[in-house]
Amino acid sequence: MVADTFVFIKTRALPYLGQFLIPAIIAAVAFVAFGLGRLSALDEKIVPISTQATIEQPALPLPNTGEHTFVATKSGSKFYPAGCAAAAHLKASSEVWFTTAKEAEAAGYELSAKCNH
């Protein structure tokens, strides 16, 4: 009886097994992957995405003299108030300091629009 069943499977069912087994395995893997994906989404907490970020930059320290309130670079054309965030990015080796805005304008510099208060 067992031998007859084995012969039946080998001669009649085995040729059709490849036609149905591979698609069945693919479908089973797809269902399991989908289910695991949905299951993992249940545990995640949704955090709203913010499109606005606030970045606080420290004010640029004044030189030791305490008199200078505007800074520019030797090769630039703009000058900045000492506390301006854009002035923090200037190279210290090329900085030129001024006491007043009129002094900076007389030297050929123009007040930067980034720090125009």
Folded structure, characterized:
This protein is rod-shaped. It is of the alpha+beta class. It contains two helices and four strands. The protein folds into two domains: 1-47; 52-117, DNA Methylphosphotriester Repair Domain, CATH 3.40.10. The chain starts with a helix and ends in a 6-residue tail after the last strand. The protein has helices at 2-43, 101-106; strands at 70-73, 78-81, 95-98, 110-111.
Helix content: 40-55%
CATH class of the largest domain: Alpha Beta
For the secondary structure, the number of strands is 4
The number of helical runs is: 2
Q: Report the CATH topology name of the largest domain.
A: DNA Methylphosphotriester Repair Domain
Q: Output the radius of gyration.
A: 37 Å
The CATH architecture term of the largest domain is 3-Layer(aba) Sandwich
Largest sheet: 4 strands, mixed
Form type: rod-shaped
Oligomer: single chain
Arithmetic mean pLDDT: 76
Work out the count of structural domains. Answer: 2
Structural class: alpha+beta
Element-by-element helix/strand order: HEEEHE
Terminal-residue CA separation: 98 Å
